Structure formats: structure tokens, C-alpha cells
Amino acid sequence: MSPSELFNIVIMQGFAGFSLFSVLLLMGLGLAIIFGQMGVINMAHGEFMTIGAYTIYLASHLSETFAPGLMPYYFPPAILLAFIAAFAVGWLAEWLLIRHLYKRPLDTLLATWGLSLGMQQVFRSTFGPKEVSPTLPDWLLGSWSPMAGLDIPINGLFVMALTLVVCAVVFLAMFRSRWGLRVRATVANRAMANATGIDTRRTDRITYAIGCGIAGMAGAAFTTIGSTGPTSGSLYIVDAFLVVTFGGAASLLGTIASAFSISQVQSIAEFFLTGSMAKVLTLSLILLILMMRPQGLFASKVRR
Amino acid sequence: MNKIFEQFGTHRHAALILLMLLLAVVLPLGLDIFRLNLIGKYLSYSFVAVGLVMLWGYGGILSLGQGVYFGLGGYCMAMFLKLEASDPVSTKIQTTPGIPDFMDWNQITALPLLWQPFRHLPLALLAVVLVPGLLAFVLGVAMFKRRVSGVYFAIMTQAVALILSVLIIGQQGYTGGVNGITDLKTLLGWDIRTDRAHYILYFVNVALLGLVILGCQWIQQSKLGTLLLAMRDKEDRVRFSGYDVASFRTFVFCLAAALAAIGGAMFTLQVGFMSPSFVGIVPSIELVIFTAIGGRMSLIGAVYGTLLVNLGKTYFSESFPDLWLFLMAALFIGVVMAFPDGLAGIYSARIRPWLLNRRGIQAASSVTQAGNPARP
Amino acid sequence: MQSKSPDQARKFSARTLLCSALSLVLLASAQPGFADVPPTAKVNTTGLAVADTEVTVGQLHSATGTMAISETGSIQAEQLAIDQINAMGGVLGRKVKVIKEDGASDWPTFAEKSKKLLVNDHVAAVFGCWTSASRKAVLPIFEKENGMLYYPTFYEGLEQSKNVVYTGQEATQQILWSLDWAKNEKKAKSFFLIGSDYIWPRTSMKIARKHIENFQKGKVVGEEYYPLGNTNFNSLINKIKIAKPDVIFAAVVGGSNVAFYKQLKAAGITADKQMLLTLSVTEDEALGIGGENLAGFYSSMKYFESLTNDNNKKFVAAFKAKYGPKSVIGDVTQAAYLGPWIWKAAVEKAGSFDVDKVAAATPGIEVKIAPEGYVKVHQNHHLWSKARIGMAQADGQFKVVAESPELIEPNPFPKGYQ
After folding, report:
1. Phi/psi of residue B5, nearest 5 degrees
2. Is the dihedral of CA B309, B313, B319, B325 positive or negative?
């Protein structure tokens, strides 16, 4: 292999790592808010991602049928739509289910598990049991090739950019807005927050819905790299939980750090080992580190 | 001796006797052997649920990876049965006769060392309890000494489940891969596939379950049970009183693992195969759901919960093939929302006071004492 | 329609007198027809669910869970075949009634439901299963309870049972001819083998490797397996780029499949630069992957929806009439469609629903209306069938570019490949 080829491979492999990083981060971010900040074990997270994916499918379908001229442009607004759809369903779920369960976090696991079963069946009844494939705009397909032998996936770039934007918005909202202040106050001490006049119920509902909305956006973005079917969400749920826990549940920064380290280890291990062994190696490393640092990489300093 | 009987209390005994009557007399008389065998399969899950009552209800530790121990127990049993089914005569078409068929398909030419002990039934039976017990011990020591608890512990047990299922599926030459270990025929020459065998295994299963519940009730009544409850509610105070919290937690974790493993072995015997689909995360969560539906504080409730969910699953999916997932979802959500203490909660909050009122007795019972813990 | 041997004894009962009289008339003119309904006691000596006007069969696939994506096509095709058989008057004059059970993508559930169908419902035959794992879970039950299973999926071979008819290809039928085609027509010498991590891809790749190395004197430059459900293939794609194989030989399944092809395309691996031959992409999978991500890649199957023979035109028209113009038909869907027809022919040849007699009558059964052209059941209960190579089009259909000249003999225990 010539040096230039080696260079290309190193670049592409590095990109593979970063692209996995942004995928993990995007799927973990919504959960980091719901699970990390609110303590709700949201087993239906994957299904909220699927809502986003089906929103893209619907949007591509509608645009293909009614406005073929808009095909190249439908994708970004559809991602916003995905956020809105998942936000709305999340809001409803919080109102119907979750708000009754804040005092017993482990029960949220069971209720949301039931919710995820029900949602899967809704997808199946609505869109059919087979996978669907949204028609993506041409500019999202293929690769960007700055020089011969070097191919950078455009969908990877897109997911990265989206992750960056979502992250920035979440951080701004969390640390620079009234809502963020209320959320942080509620997480730190619910009773005190209530006493100072914060409507913690409303804060909870919006926080949960925003977490779901971000999941919806993640699902929408993943239509470029993965499948869209009734059970697609189950492909992501375990990884999402690992990312959030490993980072130290209550810390958004921890989620980023953990997504980064998991993605790098996995992507490098996959390159040098076979796929199955790489997975085992990554999971074992996570387990070992978690045993040594049980509160995750970035422990919150909150007293329980 | 009298004191022990007093401790067991009258209604705990009555509930167990009632359950045993139902399982050992009513169901065998009322159901044909196919349905009874299905009940036997569900009862093998209820070992896990009983273990979870001890671990989660009493110990306050939620494990989302009990499928691992159920699976390991089942695999230990299945390995013995598979070796017996793979005698050189019945496997003579293979390249290497005398080894399990899936090894032959994966170019393994001699029985791996890992499999050697499973030629002997006593060793295999020992392994059923010891292998999962040891794994639980190692994990328990590592995690509880570092005071991992709550949701973190739950997620870690999930990671273990994930690792083990990826390993089992990946190492298919040694484990049978995604297919699992299938086509099990005889136990020491006794055909386990006949109706007669299914009857016998069912009663063995019921008897074992009765013993296990008695044992767990005894633990709950002993000082150990009190300590477990105390640790769940005020861990620090117990620690400051000089008790080693980690050891107690490790013990109850190992206990739950061993119980799950017994269930796994009984599953293998009654169903005739073992599959990695039990080791993953989803079945482990389902096992927790059985316990939650039954009531996490009630050993007897756990058995009823397991039966209810599984009968629901079977009945719904046979009668409403298109809608059954909705019905299951409604069942889970409904129980969690309306009856946080599960079936046992319904009993102690509604039925029991009613019964007692009718008899004019003041309602005060050990279940309601233990059944209203401070929520974590 | 098989004709009855003339020496068959006939019992008369008041209830069947009319039918029998009619059948005698028909026999006399040597033209047995639909009205030839033999008495139940005669065609069913083992207590199956066969009545005077009705015979019950079971259907056992995953309608829920992750495998529902793949198994839905089989459910539809089997139902279509049974409807058509009923429209023709049923089997031995009896309408076919179906009991549907949901395996829920869970192997123990498959075992439970198959036992229910055999022990509780006494069905005469079961059309079902998709994955190897589900078949392995139910096989001991079918052998012990003596049931009849019609299994539609192409699979790894290494199995043969009196109680199973395999209507899909075993591994050598799907692999050997297509590898030879790649070598002879496309001058391929080096191969990169990729599969999901379970028995079918592993066995298929083992056979492929032996064939490439021992018979073709070619080279295998890589062999990789990824866990089922894996959605990240970028590192693998880089390994492919280093190895520079003439052909990527892929057997990736399920949700991974979509991720694999989308990421290949995104990494610039497209048909104009790289040849890819897959064992696991039919029109069904193309639906989820999207034709634009597949265009130009080759798939090795025995059936494609685009086949132009008359049988297939009728089949496609009937399928689309029943399930909508947008529905697609993959290789396994077609194989599932064959199941009820093979069962019907075997029952009529045996003159009985008894499983032993049906199993004995099965070898030699021909299906002349098979959409794939013509198939025949081998002594080993697998089908003689052709191998075809299809090139994926942007609309998700396949253009047949090569076809084996002869029917290929099924050989589930191939010598030299183990």
C-alpha cells in the first residue's frame, strides 16, 4: 500500500470514528435529558426515534406526490417536523403516563416498556410490517471526494453537522435560558425549586417532550444511514442507555465524553478485530470502567 | 420450633398452600398435557421472579440482567442433554461422530475442554447452580464493594446481558450460536419428550418452586431479611451499625442468580431446547415485568404475576393475532398506573381487608407491614 | 390433479353416496374431477383436523417483532396460494382452513406455537418459519408429533427431515453457480466475504471459501461477521477499501442490511467501481434499502419478480390484485407460495392427508405452475431449481442477467465443502 493510500485510509477511518461519535451523541442526547436530568427510564426512546424516521418517510412521500420540485429541499424542514411530531407525542405521554410516576422511577421503566410495545404496533398497523425507504434528496447521497481515493460520506457529514447544531442549542437552552435554569433547579432540588415558585410540573412536561423531540430528530437523521421500520428503534435503545450511563447520567458534558470514547474504541477495535469481537471488547471496557467509576465518567455533585 | 411456625404466620402459609393446591391439583386435573407443559414453562420463569422479589423487593437492587443467569442455568443443563443426545451412533453421518451437531458444522473436531465436565450429570447439576452463582458473586463483589446501586447497577447488569448474548451468538462452534442448543432427547436414557415425562417434570417443577418459596420466606423472616429491608431503606444507617452491606447484597444477588438458574434448567428440561434469546436484554426486562405485575414484595404474587402475563400473552396472541401487542401494552401500563404493588397489592389493599371485615377481624398483616416500603 | 388407482377400495355411506356415485361416473370416464371426494375416514387415519368439507392447516410466522419485516411476504404468499387452491375446489374436495399463529420473532414462542398447532389443533400441515433458528426450534417437535412443515427460506443446508419440505434453496444451490458465474463472466479472482453473525451466513461463507480456494483457485481477501442489528459499517468499509477485492460477497440480514448498503453508497462504493454479489437481498429488502442505494449490484436468487414466463405473470398479477399494486415479491415469498401447492399435490398423489403417506409421496412432485418456472421435489425433500443472477435497478426491481441452464440438484450435505 502506498503512503497516500495509507493516508486516505487513516483519514477515512478517523472520519468513521467521528461519524459514529455524532451518531451515538445524537441518540444519547435526548435520553441524557430525560433519563439524566429527570430520572425517567424511558424505554420508548427508540420508538420516539422511529416517529422521526416515519415523519421523514411521510414528508418524502408527500413531497414526491404533490411537489416533486421541492424534493431537494424537503429534508431540513422535515427534520423540524420530526421534532414537532415527537415533541407532541412526548408531551401527551408525559401527561397521560409519566407524570404519575415521578416518585417511582423504576416504574417508569415498566410503563414506558408498555408504551414502546404499543407504539411498535401502531407503526405496524399504520405503515405496514415491512421496512420503508424514504426517497432522500440527491445531495445527501454518495460521497464527497476531495481527492482520488478519499471518500467522505455526505450523510456522515450531515449527521455531524446536525449533532453540532442540536448540541449547541441544547447547551444554550440549558445554561442560558430561563427554561434551563428551571430544569437545573428542579434536578438539583425539586422541593426548593417548587418553593421558589417554579412550576416543576410544567418544567417536567416540557423537558420530557423536548427530550422526545430530540430523539425524533435523531431518528429523522438516521434515515440517511439506517433502516426505517416498526422495530428500527430497538436497534438504538441499548447503545443510547450505555452512552448516557457511561457519561454519568446527570451530566450533559459526560454524555459527550462518553459518546466520544465509546465511538473511538469501537471504531478502532472494529478496524483491527472482527465485528463481533469489537463489540464484546467495547462493552467489556465500558463495564470495567463503570465498575471503577460507578457514577460514570462525569459524576454529578448532587447530594441524593 | 413453635416460634418458627408462629413467625411464618397463618396467612402466608395459607397463601402458599393455596398456590400449591392450584398448581399441583387443580391445573393438572383441569388441563391437558400440552397446556400443562406450557404452565410448566411459565413456572420455570417464576423462579426468576421469586429471585427478583428477594433481590429487588427486599434487597432494593434492580437487576435488568436476570436472563443471564436463567440462560446460564439452562445452558448448563442443555449441554449435558446435548452430549447425551450426540452419542456416536446417532451422529454417525457427521465428520466427527460423538460431538454435538453444531460443532461438526463449525469444523470443530474434538469436544472442547469447556464441555468435558458436562458428560456427567452430577457435575452438570452442580454447574447449573455454581456457574451463575460464581458469575453473580464476582460481579456482586466488584460492584457492591464500590457501592454501585440503583439505576447504575441496573444498567450494568444490562451491559453484562448484552456482552454475554453477543459472546454466545459469536462463538457458535462452542455454544450453538443464535440457534441455541436444540434437539435434546433424553436424561440418563429417560425420554424427556413424552407426555409422561412432561407430567413428572411438571410436578418436580412445582415441588421445587414450593421449596424455593418456603426457603425465601424463611430468609425473609430471619434477621437477614430484616437487615435486607433495612439496607434498602437506609443503607448508611445499617453500614454505620457495623454491618457489611456489600456482603449481604452480594449474597442476595447470588441467591437470585441461583434461583434463576434453577428455573433455566427446568425450562430446558420441559421445553427441550435452550436459546440465547433468553440471555439478552429484552427477556430480562420481561422477567422484571412478571415480578412487578405480581407485586415486588410478594413471593406468591410473583408466581401469579408470571402466570398472568404469560397466559395473557398466549391467550391474546392466539385469539387476537393482530391486536395482542396492544393488549399486552395496556396490561403493563394499567398495572403500573393503577396497582403499583401489583397483584399482591390488589390483594392486600382490597381483597384481604374485605375478607377480614367479613370475618370481623382487625386488618393487620405482615404483608401490609412489609408491603408499604418507602419508595426509593 | 392426480388420478386414483382403479383398485382403490371405496366405502359407501349414506352421506357420501351422491358424491361417490358421481365419482364412479367420473372414474368410468377416467376423468376424476373436483367432485371426487373420498370419505374422511379413509383419507385421515391419524386423527388430523380433516372433516368432510374442510381440512385445517397452520401458518406460523412472525407477524410481530424484528422478523415481521421479512416474514410478512411469506404470510401473504401462502395465503394467496391457499385462496387459489380453495377457489379450485380445495384439496381432495375439502376447503383449506388456516389457523394463523404469531411466532413473534422469538424461537421459544415458535416452539410453543408449533406444538399448539400440532397437538391442540391437529393441523394437517404447517406453512411457516423463516430463520434457521426458528426452524431448529420447531424441528424436534415436528419429528416427535409427526407433523409436516413447509419451510420457504433459502438456508444453510446440513439438514434433512422426513417432516420438512424445504421450498427454498440450500446453500450450494445459491452459492456455487453464482460464484462460477462471477469467475467466468466477470473474471473475478478475489473475494471479500461479509455476513451477519449467525449460522446461515457462516455456513454459506464456509462453502463459498472452499469453492473459491479449492475449486476456483481464487483468493479470499477478507471474511467478516457483524452482530445482528449492527448499524455501523464504516470501519468495515475501510477494510474493504484496503483489501480491494474483485467482488464483495455479502450475506448481511435484517436491519443491518439497510445500514450496510446506505453506508457503502455514502463511502463511494457503487456499482460502477466495485462489483458486489449478495445472497440476502431480494425485492423485499430492496424496499427498505432503497433502489438508489443498490443499483447495479448483483443478487443470487432462484426467483425475481421480473421473470417473464407466463406462470410468473399470472402470479404477480394475482399477488398485486390481492395485496395492492405497490407490493413486491421476493425470492422467499415465491418459495412460500410453492408450499401449499406441493402439499396439495402430495396429498392428492397419496390419496390421503396422513403425514406419513404425504411425506412418502412428496419426492418427485412437480410444480408446473411455479412462478420460478418449474420445480421438482428431490428425494431429500429439497427442490430442484435454477440459479439466477439479478442486477438491481434503481426502482428496486432486479433485471435477470444470468440463469443456470439446468435445474440444480439440491445437496444439503455437500461433500468437499464441510
Report:
1. -65, -40
2. positive
Count how many domains chain C has.
2
A194 contact B CB<8A: no
CA distance A155 to C261: 13
Could you please report the per-residue DSSP string of B88-133?
TTTTTTSSSTTS-HHHHHTT--S--GGGGGGGSHHHHHHHHHHHHH
- Which chain A residues are closer than 8 Å to B282 by Cβ? 234
What single-letter DSSP state applies at residue C2?
P
CATH number at residue C276: 3.40.50.2300
Verify whether the Cβ–Cβ distance C101 to B107 is below 8 Å. Answer: no
User: Of chain C residues 153-172, which have a CB less than 8 A from chain B?
Assistant: 156, 158
What range defines the domain where residue B118 resides? Answer: 2-371
pTM: 0.89
pLDDT at B367: 42
Give the total number of structural domains in chain A. 2
C98 touches chain B (CB under 8 A): no
Structural element, H or E, at residue C61: strand C54-61
- Please give the Cα distance from C299 to C249 (Å, whole number): 10
Does the pLDDT value for residue B361 go beyond 80? no
- Closest to C343 in 3D by CA, of C169, C162, C72, C149: C149
Query: Quick check: C268 and A9 CB within 8 A?
Result: no
Q: Is residue B217's pLDDT more than 90?
A: yes
Q: Are residues C136 and C264 in the same domain?
A: no
Instruction: Using alpha carbons, select from C45, C21, C47 the residue that is nearest to residue C35.
Output: C21
To the nearest whole Å, the CA of A29 is away from the closest chain B CA by 17
C226 to chain B: nearest residue by CA?
A: B170
In the structure grid, which three cell numbers stand for residue A114, read together?
408498555
Q: What was the pLDDT predicted at A183?
A: 87
* Domain, as residue range, for A48: 23-234
**Number of Cβ atoms within 10 Å of the Cβ of C244:** 12
Pick A280's closest partner by Cβ from B155, B163, B329: B163
| Nearest-5° Cα angle at B24, B20 to B29 | 135
pLDDT band at A109 (very low <50, low <70, confident <90, very high): confident
Question: CB distance A153–C267 less than 8 Å?
Answer: yes
Residue (of A16, A119, A229, A134) closest to C254 by Cα position:
A229
Task: Please tell me which of the candidates A131, A135, A136 has its beta carbon nearest to residue C288.
Answer: A131
Judge whether C359 and C97 are in contact, CB under 8 Å.
no
The residue among A89, A88, A63 whose CA lies nearest residue A75 is: A63
Are B340 and A107 within 8 A, CB to CB?
yes
Considering the domain architecture, whether residues A247 and A229 belong to the same structural domain is answered as no
- Separation CA C80–CA C311 (nearest Å): 14
Domain ends where: A234, A261, A276? A234
CB C366 within 8 A of CB C382: no
More confident residue, A82 or B6: A82
Residues A217-272 have pLDDT tens digits of: 999 999 998 889 998 888 888 888 888 888 876 778 889 999 999 999 999 999 99
Which of C10, C80, C18, C5 lies closest to C348, judged by CA?
C5
Residue B45 is which amino acid?
Y
Buried b (16+ CB within 10 A) or exposed e, A193-220: beeeebebeebbbbbbbbbbbbbbbbbb
If pLDDT is split at 50, 70 and 90, which confidence band does A110 have? confident
- Residue B346 · residue B294 · CB < 8 Å: no
pLDDT in tens, C271-324: 999 999 999 999 999 999 999 999 999 999 999 999 999 999 999 999 999 999
- The domain boundary residue, chosen from A216, A234, A252: A234
- Closest residue of chain B to A125, computed from CA coordinates: B322
Average pLDDT over residues B316-339: 85
